[in-house]
Write a structure and sequence with these properties.
The protein is α/β, with parallel strands linked by helices. The protein has a single domain, classed as P-loop containing nucleotide triphosphate hydrolases (Rossmann fold). 45% of the residues lie in helices and 11% in strands. It is built from 14 helices and 5 strands. It has a 5-stranded parallel β-sheet with strand order 2-3-1-4-5, sandwiched between helices. Helix 2 runs parallel beside helix 13. The N terminus is likely disordered. The protein binds adenosine-5'-triphosphate.
Length: 288
């Protein structure tokens, strides 16, 4: 008899817990080709995302409505990963599927001269999502303990104290009603080579190729070490990290979709009550 896919087998509900970083987490133990918490296929994953799209829309609209008075919670998705890890695909397929009204995306590049003259969190604070919004950071304040650490861009005593600064900064975000979803997209060096090779093979992908990405491959081990330190020092009960295996793009997209859904469900913002007399307005409308 053909094996039937039951709802349980293809449910994405277990992904959040499966990818959450817990004490003693070891990055090198995670297989970038694995699909933790999910037993479905690529095709199932598309169906799973489609099935919860209406719910995400509803939850996002509630969040947005609740922020209209300048109060209420917001969500901040922090995306980190090695070059080619698939941040762009997440932005297009996951974030792109929610109503653009109420979504703000910011990509953090090499700091400008002006940004370098300020403390590292200065440019980050300016991009925090307002109440009711979903903010997305494509790279983030974590670059200041990743690329900066790997390339000795500041003395060790400076980057070492940043982990604690980041933790208290994120707590202050929580106090303002900003709920973080921190995601590291975890790819293998072999998959990165294949993705870079594809960019070099196809004229329609040349624009994505950056020769510097090949130089960065020399530092793969140092980056993994720097990521491990980030996960050890900044995955807290309030603001945990999620390590999402990303060699399979379809799984990474489903996982981030699910993490966003989980967070919106947790917030489940109530519809704001009317700040006018509904019956009176109905009567007025009927009279027109
Ligand atoms: P893709 O992954 O899609 O190729 P990208 O995120 O690599 O895009 P780029 O403009 O190619 O985008 O790279 C941004 C660069 O900025 C990265 O190399 C990143 O390490 C660097 N960067 C970001 N923040 C900092 C920082 N605080 N200090 C130094 N470099 C930084």
């Amino acid at each position: 008899m053909p094996k039937k896919h039951g709802a349980k087998a293809t449910s994405a509900a277990a992904i959040g817990n499966a990818v959450r970083v817990k004490p003693g987490f070891v990055l090198s133990d995670v297989d970038p080709r694995s699909t933790p918490g999910y037993a479905g296929s690529k095709k199932d994953s598309v169906g799973a995302m489609d099935a919860s799209r209406a719910e995400i829309d509803d939850l996002q609209e509630r969040l947005y409505a609740g922020g209209r008075d300048g109060d209420g919670p917001s969500v901040l998705l922090v995306l980190q990963g090695m070059d080619t890890a698939g941040k762009g695909g997440i932005l297009r397929h996951v974030v792109g599927a929610v109503d653009p009204q109420g979504v703000s995306i910011h990509a953090f590049k090499v700091p400008t001269k002006e940004e370098r003259e300020h403390p590292f969190l200065w440019r980050i604070r300016k991009q925090l999502p307002p109440p009711g919004n979903i903010g997305v950071f494509d790279r983030s304040h974590y670059e200041d303990v990743l690329v900066v650490r790997v390339h000795d861009l500041v003395p060790p005593k400076v980057w070492r104290r940043r982990y604690a600064e980041i933790n208290s900064f994120e707590e202050s975000c929580n106090d303002k009603g900003i709920h973080l979803v921190k995601v590291m997209l975890h790819i293998s060096p072999q998959e990165q080579r294949a993705r870079l090779a594809e960019r070099l093979d196809r004229p329609d992908k040349y624009w994505k190729f950056n020769p510097g990405d090949i130089d960065e491959r020399e530092h793969w081990g140092d980056y993994q070490e720097a990521y491990q330190a980030v996960l050890d020092k900044t995955s807290t009960d309030e603001n945990p990290w999620h390590v999402v295996p990303a060699d399979h793009k379809w799984y990474a997209r489903l996982a981030v979709h699910q993490l966003l859904l989980d967070k919106l469900r947790e917030l489940h913002a109530p519809w704001p009550p009317a700040d006018f007399d509904v019956a009176e307005q109905q009567e007025r409308l009927a009279a027109t």
